[in-house]
Design a protein that fits this description.
Bound molecules: adenosine-5'-diphosphate
Number of helices: 5
Strand order of the largest sheet: 1-6-5-2-4-3
CATH architecture: 3-Layer(aba) Sandwich
Structural class: alpha/beta
CATH class: Alpha Beta
CATH superfamily: Leucine Aminopeptidase, subunit E, domain 1
Number of strands: 6
Order of helices and strands: EEHHEEHEHEH
Radius of gyration: 15 Å
Helix content: 40-55%
Oligomer: single chain
Strand content: 15-25%
Distance between the termini: 19 Å
CATH topology: Leucine Aminopeptidase, subunit E, domain 1
Length: 173
Amino acid sequence: MRNHTLQIIKGDITKIKADAIVNAANNSLMGGGGVDGAIHRAGGPEILEDCKKIVAHRGECRTGEAVVTTAGNLPAKYVIHTVGPVWNGGEKGEPELLYNCYRNSLMLANGHQCKTIAFPNISTGVYRFPKPLAAEIAQRSVRDFLENSEHQISEVIIVCFDDENYKINREMV
Ligand code: ADP
C-alpha cells in the first residue's frame, strides 16, 4: 500500500513548514548564493553556527553527501545540507552524485524521525545541471527510496522556484 506522496509545487522553500527542508549547499557549508543564501538569511545565524561545528568535527561535506543542522528561525525543524555536483558535461559521475544527494538527504531525514521533507531543484542553478535530467534523477531517487526502503516518510515536496523547473517537474510526474 502507498502511504506516501511526492508533490511538486512552485514556491520559496524557506516558507515551507516541513519537518526538514533541504539546502543545495557547497562543500564548505559556509553559505553562498541562490537557495543557500536564502535559507541562511531567513533562518538566521544559528544555521551557520551548526555548519561550522560540523566542519570543525568532520571536515567539509563531500559532494553527494548530506548533513543536518537546526532550522533556526525557519518554520521547518531541520535543514539538511547536501552538496550537489557541478555539471561538467555528465561524464564525471554527475548523475550518480545528484541521485545520492536525494537519497542521502532522505535517509538522514528518516533517521531524525522526519515525516515530511522539501527539496529544491539541487544543482540546477549556478551548478548548471540540465534541468530535465536533474528532474528525472530527483524523481527517480525519491521514488526508489520511498518504494524500496523501510522508512516513515509520508510526504516529499519538490519546491520549484523558477517556472522552467516547475513545468519540467510537473510534466514528468
Ligand atoms: P546549485 O548551486 O545547487 O545550482 P542554486 O541555489 O544556484 O544551487 O540553485 C538551485 C535551485 O534553487 C535553482 O533551481 C534555483 O531556482 C532554486 N532556488 C533559488 N532560491 C530558492 C528558494 N528560495 N526556494 C527554492 N528554490 C530556490
